[in-house]
Sequence to fold (83 residues):
Amino acid sequence: MDDLIVKYEKELMEITTYFQVTTQPGRGLDYCGVTIIPPESLKQFRDVIIKANNEYQYQELEALIEKISDAIKNDKYIIHYGI
Fold:
């Protein structure tokens, strides 16, 4: 999956996120740390994952798209624990 992060880095860097805690604003995913993706950024994040899935069609991306969609529906955050 590392290839996805590299290929879609520009699009991911446009997403407003937080690093470690919600008092540390950031952009994109923290490659080696914890990223908190707030509800207001999830549609943009899902769009990038859908775009990647259209190209790669990994089963894991399908599951991630479902998880993001559930978080959007329930106004929840997603936590990414790095690569």
